[in-house]
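Question: does this match?
>
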Amino acid sequence: MIRAMLRDGGSEREACLLDLSSGGLMASVSEAPRRGTFAELTVGRHSLVGQVQWSEGRRFGMKLRERIDVLAVIGNEAGPTALEAARKARGRPSPEATFAYSRHVAQGFTWGILIAGVATGAVLTAQLVAKSLAPLQAVSLALGGR
């Protein structure tokens, strides 16, 4: 739950943000705004604007005007809230970060190949041992009379 301020139709009051996604939110307030109302919810340094889609008791759900970067809002990060603008502000990853990620993926691939090779070797060894012991089992059955 995150504290916020709700403004709808001129009045401003405290609200509590209960759920947040890139396209909408659910909040609780002393008196929920009516369905269809346009409202602004200020969370830290971010302003979330949208239209109330449902209202029940103290809770309401709002569809946001534009998709937002949820982590930027929750973390109260400086910079834009709009998803596309936030992505552009972050920029491209550094070459070092790209190289580290590629190395991580390559190590996972290598370990996967190694495990598959060991498993294949174990299956082949088990089949070889079973074939080698087949004549001994036939002799054992012949001598045992079973």
